[in-house]
Write a sequence for this structure.
């Protein structure tokens, strides 16, 4: 009776010993692995001769991180997760819903409030000019990716169509805005929907030939499609300006009332007697992209509970069953492509208005891969998860730029941005190890009989009985 | 077990001389089958005889190369599958094919998509009355259901479409005898109370023949025998091939 009550405590010394052992082992492993890659560096000296030097400090950091990390995981995280699982199993309730905290329940409201207040807070902390970096690099940049990832989520996360060429629609949107505004002088607010429609049109064009494809075949064809669009943009020099791209793209205005052109008489800063700064434009753009993101989220959530959204999700699961339930799979796939592409087009025209410059450089395959990675990391289908993934991945890479102090650790010629992709990869591996279904891995059902219940992660594993 | 079938009336489903190919392999060679309004008709036969192929051919995937499938007075032979389904032929296919990541409730919603959930609330109660297990499990994901529960869900989802004709491909596959009894009882009830027309493929020939008004025996892509359930149960050939030693 007595010895049955605290299995966790009894196991603790064993766990600690195990943790120390595994930690040491990880350290040794890291030492062996990184000795040559990290511990020794080759470089060219002034005479252009290849010489080498050692970086014991850096190597020590790598080894220490591995060892301590492993120790913590084995010693603390694993037991805690196990205990939680055990407790859940004991309670015998698969559904966890009622015991959510205040933060959890009001998460969306809090997040919204934080986003709306972000620019004024930053301005008050760092001044108008100082806010530029935060609003632009961390705000707008992240939100663009949130929007792109939410758009791609319709295609990949909901409809289950693996699209590796999503950046093509981003490009269509950007070039639509750039070209139409230069040729016809139309304003951002007219061209924004137009860019969306054009991108949707291209989504359908791509959709038709690939209707019969699934999985890896579909991925390869969409990949090729993305590259074709980029190559066309690069080589159709008369129209697109080729690799030089298009510059001097008109800025967006506040619905034509105030402009952000420095020379304009209705310039925003001048109208309000404020000092000239490009920061106002960025703050305005921040709210524009925030609104676009919210529209994307709203439409996605609405669509999910509509017949077409249900059909998308069913299509991802079983195409044959869908057809035998009377679902037109052709129409369903095409709408998924079109709507996903439309959001990409919106984001693209926004991108062009923000940069004032577009070139094929911005629409390489890597962009598609990053967007897809965000969708996968976030947990396909989950808007919250995807937003978190975008913040971590994009914000993380932006942070790297800021980390000047790393130069003191890694040497003067260390450029943190170059390690972006490495970190991206590491983060993906880590997330997939610990949360194989992404940050928010459990799919939220869209319909309930009585009350909302979320089914816990342990019950979301698929099985075919 | 008498049915009010007017023999002069057109059958609800009439399959005539159907030949279906997989590539160059002929899976059905000239199949004639019909199902009258209000009947339970079953199709029995050995593995690989072509039973599932016939079910799928009725649904238009694959389509018959020769012959015709007429449903409710309309030739549906070359119609795309989803349009056939919209004429209210519902199917619980081989392997059940429920949506594994969607909940039981959502799976049932998918079944009611034709009427855009107009009768959903009413119908879902009926399904839950028929299969109380589904009610208990309504917020569980389809893929985590047991085999029997999945079968109930597959039938339930098909019924949500308010079908004129229900096609069932091996509803008893892999189920405990008690559950099989439950499912067959449900089919009988639907037929008697609601007048549902059912076309049933079964390996469990004894139970199927007992349940059915009429039945067909299929061998190598051809129908070799037909008759009332009772006739076939008594037929020595059928007994030897499908019943002896196989009584469940
Ligand atoms: N997609 C396919 N491609 C090629 N051949 C197929 C295909 N599906 C079925 N067949 C073949 O067609 C024949 C009939 O198969 P079918 O599935 O209709 O048999 P069945 O009577 O349902 O058998 P079982 O009782 O085992 O389910 C078999 O020889 C099978 O191998
Ligand atoms: Mg079969």
């Amino acid at each position: 009776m007595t010895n049955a009550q605290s299995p966790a405590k009894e196991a603790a010394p064993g766990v600690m010993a195990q943790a120390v052992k595994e930690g040491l082992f990880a350290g040794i492993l890291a030492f062996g692995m990184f000795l040559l890659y990290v511990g020794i560096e080759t470089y060219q000296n002034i005479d252009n001769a290849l010489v080498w030097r050692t970086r014991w400090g850096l190597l020590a950091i790598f080894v220490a991180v591995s060892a301590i990390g492993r120790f913590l995981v084995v010693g603390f995280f694993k037991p805690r997760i196990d205990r939680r699982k055990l407790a859940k199993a004991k309670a015998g309730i698969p559904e966890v819903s009622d015991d959510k905290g205040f933060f959890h329940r009001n998460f969306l409201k809090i997040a919204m409030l934080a986003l709306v207040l972000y620019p004024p807070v930053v301005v008050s902390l760092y001044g108008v000019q100082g806010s530029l970096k935060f609003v632009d690099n961390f705000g707008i940049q992240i939100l663009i990716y949130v929007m792109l990832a939410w758009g791609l989520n319709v295609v990949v996360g909901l409809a289950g169509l693996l699209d590796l060429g999503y950046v093509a629609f981003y490009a269509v949107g950007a070039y639509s805005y750039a070209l139409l505004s230069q040729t016809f002088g139309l304003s951002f607010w007219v061209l924004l929907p137009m860019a969306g429609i054009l991108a949707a049109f291209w989504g359908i064009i791509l959709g038709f030939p690939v209707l019969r494809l699934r999985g890896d075949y579909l991925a390869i064809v969409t990949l090729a499609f993305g590259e074709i669009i980029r190559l066309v943009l690069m080589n159709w020099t008369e129209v697109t300006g080729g690799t030089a791209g298009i510059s001097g793209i008109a800025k967006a205005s506040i619905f034509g009332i105030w402009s952000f052109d420095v020379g304009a008489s209705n310039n925003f800063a001048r109208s309000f007697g404020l000092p000239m700064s490009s920061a106002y434009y960025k703050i305005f753009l921040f709210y524009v992209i925030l609104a676009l993101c919210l529209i994307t989220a709203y439409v996605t959530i609405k669509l999910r509970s509509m017949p077409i959204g249900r059909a998308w999700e069913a299509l991802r699961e079983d195409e044959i069953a869908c057809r035998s339930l009377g679902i037109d799979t052709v129409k369903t796939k095409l709408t998924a492509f079109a709507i996903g592409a439309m959001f990409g087009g919106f984001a693209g025209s926004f991108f062009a208005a923000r940069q004032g410059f577009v070139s094929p450089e911005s629409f390489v395959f890597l962009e598609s891969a990053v967007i897809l990675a965000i969708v996968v990391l976030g947990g396909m289908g989950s808007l919250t998860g995807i937003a978190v993934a975008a913040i971590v991945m994009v914000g993380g890479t932006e942070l790297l730029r800021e980390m000047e102090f790393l130069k003191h650790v890694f040497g003067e010629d260390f450029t943190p941005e170059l390690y972006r992709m490495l970190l991206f990869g590491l983060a993906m591996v880590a997330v997939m190890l610990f949360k194989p279904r992404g940050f928010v891995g459990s799919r939220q059902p869209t319909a309930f009989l009585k009350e909302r219940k979320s089914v816990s992660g342990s019950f979301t594993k698929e099985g075919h009985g | 077990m008498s049915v009010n079938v007017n023999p002069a009336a057109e059958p609800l489903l009439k399959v005539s001389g159907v030949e279906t190919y997989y590539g160059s392999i002929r899976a059905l060679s000239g199949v004639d089958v019909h199902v009258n309004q209000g009947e339970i008709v079953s199709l029995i036969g050995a593995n690989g005889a072509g039973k599932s192929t016939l079910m799928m051919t009725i649904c238009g995937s694959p389509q018959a190369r020769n012959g015709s499938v007429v449903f409710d007075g309309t030739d549906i032979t070359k119609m795309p599958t989803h349009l056939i389904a919209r004429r209210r032929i519902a199917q619980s296919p081989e392997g059940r094919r429920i949506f594994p990541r969607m909940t039981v409730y959502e799976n049932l919603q998918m079944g009611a998509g034709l009427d855009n959930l107009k009768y959903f609330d009413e119908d879902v109660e009926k399904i839950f009355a028929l299969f109380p297990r589904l009610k208990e499990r309504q917020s569980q994901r389809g893929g985590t259901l047991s085999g029997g529960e999945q079968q109930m869900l597959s039938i339930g989802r098909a019924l949500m479409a308010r079908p004129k004709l229900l096609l069932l491909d091996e509803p008893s596959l892999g189920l405990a005898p008690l559950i099989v009894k439950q499912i067959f009882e449900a089919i009988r009830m639907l037929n008697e109370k609601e007048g549902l027309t059912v076309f049933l493929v079964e390996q469990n020939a004894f139970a199927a023949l007992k349940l059915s008004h009429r039945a067909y025996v299929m061998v190598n892509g051809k129908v070799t025998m037909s008759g009332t359930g009772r006739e076939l149960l008594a037929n020595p050939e059928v007994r030897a091939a499908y019943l002896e030693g196989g009584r469940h």
